[in-house]
Design goal:
Shape: elongated
Largest sheet: 8 strands, antiparallel, barrel
CATH class: Mainly Beta
Distance between the termini: 38 Å
Structural class: mainly beta
Strand order of the largest sheet: 1-2-3-4-5-6-7-8
Number of helices: 1
Strand content: over 45%
Number of strands: 8
CATH architecture: Beta Barrel
Helix content: under 10%
Length: about 200
């Protein structure tokens, strides 16, 4: 399991505190909303082997203001591998801080935060005592676009890098763009819709 890097953790804590303050003292023109929705995600591991993206189904809860937002999402995928008698269920849970770059009905945003990637492996035919549960922690970051079709409905799509490497492991690669942007071990596309109350 990866260790939690303290510098990004401090960034998330400070960002969440600033966002909470913006909800506590909103400006008169800011639109706030609590939303619940569903989404589809395509997840790809960054590896030397050419593998296809895996589709996940899930949902998200969003709390947004004019400039800031918080999203908690859960996705799920389950596959059976009869050749090795295993059923694998993957459930990533991500908490994302959203920074909205523009107001209005078309709003681009940046996102980032922590994620917990749960995996449950069980035999298709066999005793339940062979089940295996693992959880891996990783940071994610990316960007997206939300289109609001009225005050109570939004459609969004985003791309995020998962398992960011902030250089805490000396033997790993330095990342891309000369180490200025952290490396990653995966990525995901998401498309979803949210109903705001």
């Amino acid at each position: 399991m990866r260790s939690i890097c303290t510098a990004p953790l401090r960034f998330v804590v400070v960002s969440v505190a600033l966002m909470a303050a913006s909800f506590a003292f909103p400006s008169g023109a800011s639109a706030q909303g609590f939303g619940v929705g569903g989404r589809i995600a395509w997840v790809k591991a960054d590896s030397d082997v050419d593998v296809d993206s895996v589709r996940f189904n899930g949902g998200q809860i969003r709390l947004v203001s004019k400039r800031w937002g918080l999203e908690v999402s859960l996705d799920r995928n389950s596959e059976e591998f009869e050749a090795i008698n295993q059923k694998v269920t993957a459930t990533p849970i991500q908490t994302s801080l959203l920074l909205r770059l523009a107001g209005g009905s078309v709003a681009p945003y940046l996102l980032g935060g922590p994620g917990w990637y749960k995996r449950h492996v069980e035999p298709i035919d066999g005793p339940d005592d062979l089940d295996l549960d693992t959880t891996e922690f990783g940071w994610h970051a990316g960007g997206g676009l939300e289109i609001l079709a009225g005050r109570h409905f939004g459609i969004h799509g985003d791309y995020r890098y998962t398992f960011l490497d902030f250089g805490e492991d000396d033997d790993e690669e330095e990342g891309f763009v000369g180490g200025l942007i952290p490396g990653h071990r995966g990525s995901m596309w998401t498309i979803g819709a949210t109903i705001y109350f």
